[in-house]
Design goal:
single chain; 160 residues; mainly alpha; two-stranded antiparallel sheet; 2 strands; 9% strand
Amino acid sequence: MTGAEGRDILDEGARKTPDRLSRRASRLLSQLTVRSDRLITEGLARADARKWHYAVLASLQDHGPGSQAELSGRSGIYRSDIVGVLNELSERDLIERAPDPTDRRRNIITISDRGSRHLRLLDKVLDDLHDELLAPLGPDERDRFVQVLTRLLDHHTRIS
């Protein structure tokens, strides 16, 4: 992304975005989110992955095996969509499904060895993409930025 793409672009009437609009935190966060989503989506696609693949694999690696419902809750993927994501991961041998010994109606999903290796690759891909996204910030600013975003999200998650 060039510097011009990062700034408000002139419209057909050659009027710049009003200062009162361009200074709004909500607008800045929204614009950054669009650019971040595009960067992450395209970068993961080059690694033959999607955001939801990463979310499920990370959940399995960090929190251990789980049912489809548990993975839905951990990853934020709707229950109606989790089966499709799990099917994609299973087709690539990145996860394993086995009947739950306590309830044969459900499966327990586990990350495979291949899935763990793929997750390490995706971690590296995301690290590089985040470096690109946060390039103008120094290490301390990056840490502080993440802390502030986390604090805001935690606050708004609690009150919702």
